[in-house]
Amino acid sequence: MKSGKLGSHTSAEVSNVSATGFWLLIADKERFLPFADFPWFREARIRELMNVELQSPNHLYWPDLDVDLSVESIDHPERFPLVSRVSSATTVRPRNRTQGKSRVQRSARRARN
């Protein structure tokens, strides 16, 4: 593996933040990361977004947020769809008969008895 040219500097830095996402400058190319595609950053503080490390030419890491991303996932988010690990067939059932009812329904039932 060869080292980079002397004087060349490869880094990543956040160049701008908006309500819909942020711009990330990697080497000489600026990329936009919309919060819709990258929801892990939506509630992040500016200083947490700014603390980004380019750990390799294709690997970014935000240590304050514990988020790892490949540059490819930024360039082609459609190839990396967000998928929930919770099954849609999973239902939550109350433990007892009154737990799933509202306080008003329980009070009305007690008043009738």
Question: How is this fold's topology laid out?
Answer:
Blueprint: E1 12-17, E2 21-26, E3 29-34, H1 46-50, E4 53-56, E5 59-62, E6 67-70, H2 71-75, H3 103-112
Antiparallel strand pairs: 1-2, 2-3, 4-5, 5-6
Description:
By secondary structure, this protein is α+β, with helices and mostly antiparallel strands. The chain has a domain at 12-79: NE0471 N-terminal domain-like, CATH 3.30.2020. The protein is built from three helices and six strands, in the order E-E-E-H-E-E-E-H-H. The strands form two sheets. The protein has a three-stranded antiparallel beta sheet with strand order 1-2-3. A three-stranded antiparallel beta sheet has the order 4-5-6. The longest helix is centred in the C-terminal third of the chain and has 10 residues, at 103-112.
Characterize the largest beta sheet: strand count, sense, and whether it forms a barrel.
3 strands, antiparallel
SS element count, helices: 3
Strand runs, count: 6
Q: Give the terminus-to-terminus CA distance.
A: 81 Å
Give the ordered list of helices and strands: EEEHEEEHH
Query: Which architecture of the domain at 12-79 per CATH?
Result: 2-Layer Sandwich
Strand order of the largest sheet: 1-2-3
| CATH fold group of the domain at 12-79 | NE0471 N-terminal domain-like
Helices and strands: which structural class? alpha+beta
| Low-confidence runs of at least 5 consecutive residues | 1-9
Q: Which percent range describes the beta-strand content?
A: 25-35%
Radius of gyration of CA atoms, rounded to a whole number: 23 Å
CATH class of the domain at 12-79: Alpha Beta
Helix content: 10-25%
Mean pLDDT: 78
